[in-house]
Structures are given as C-alpha cells and as structure tokens.
Amino acid sequence: MHITCETNMEYDTVVFNWRVKNFRRLREIATENDLPPEGDVITSPVYVDGLGGCWWMRMYPYEKRENHSGKVSLFLHTDRATYSDVYFSFQFTALNMEGNPIEGTVGGVELHKFDKSDRVRNFGFFDFIDSEDLLTQCLDEDGGLWLYCEVHVYSHVVTELDTVEEEPTVKPRSDNEIYRQRLCYFGTKASPDHG
C-alpha cells in the first residue's frame, strides 16, 4: 500500500481596489496644516472577508515623524482578532494609470498572526513610498491614487489523504520455495514436488 497526504491551509481572499480621489490636494493639505507628526489619516471603505471579518486600510499621505518624514505610510487593519486568533498574508501596491504595479511600491508579509489578546490589530509600512515619488509616478490624470491590496485570511488546516493499492514489489515466497532454498544451501537437491 502506498499512502500520500497533503496538508494545506485553506484561506479566503479579500481584494481591495481603492481609489483615493484628489490625492494631490489631500497631500497639500497635510503638508500645509499643523497636523500631528503622523500627518492626517485617510481610511478606506471596509471590506468583508468570506469568514465574516472586516478589513480596511489607513494611509497617512505625508509623514512628519522623525525617520519617516515625507513618506506615505500605509497600514492594514482588521477586527478579525476580536473573536479569535487570525493568520493572514497580504500585499500592497500602488498602481499606475494602466493598472500596473509601480516599481518600489510593492510591500507585504507572507504570514502574520494577530492574537485575540492584541490591542493593536494593524500591520503595514511607515515608509511605503516617498510622497514626491508618488506624485510623479502614481497619480492618474485627476490627481487620484489607486491602491491595491490582496489579503489571504487563513481559516484552518486541511489534510487530504490518498491511499493507493499496489502490488508488493517483493513477492512473498511459498513454504515450498523456502524449503527448496534451504536444501540447496546445504548441498541437497530438492525435488519439485516436495512440500
């Protein structure tokens, strides 16, 4: 018998296509006004995964914090860990007018866990992209910004077992064959009908 099994984590996928209208003007407002160090925040609509959890993005269009000044920060938030631990992976990217990823704007994580005991349930990047680069590379003709986020929410582990019946590779010998082999070993010729 030959046994094979495969273990896989099943997941639900949530895809965000978020257009931030008038991003150019929002950034100007953030740089001109006396805002807190993290700048002003823009929050995406809420997206619901197939498992009942809510996900959204928060973007800070112009960071003023030391070591992050002039950067755009982008974070993924969820309420999923309110009820139980949640494992997920995600990827962010900014898109150009043709809908293609802008080089240098792809960021994500392969696997992350929020514990239900975590008070903070967000993950992301303080330095997602330099705001000047964003203005020159990523905005559409109306000054809007397209952000794409794909989240995989892992629900549980599944193991599939396949059993394949096969003929044994070594054929068992009969008692008669074993007896003949022993007699030959001791120098005696066994008769074919002995047994």
From TrEMBL:
Domain of life, source organism: Eukaryota
Domain MATH, chain residue ranges per copy: 13-151
CDD domains on file: MATH
Protein name: Speckle-type POZ (SPOP) family, MATH domain protein
Pfam families xrefs: MATH_2
Organism of this sequence: Gregarina niphandrodes
InterPro entries in the cross-refs: MATH/TRAF_dom, TRAF-like
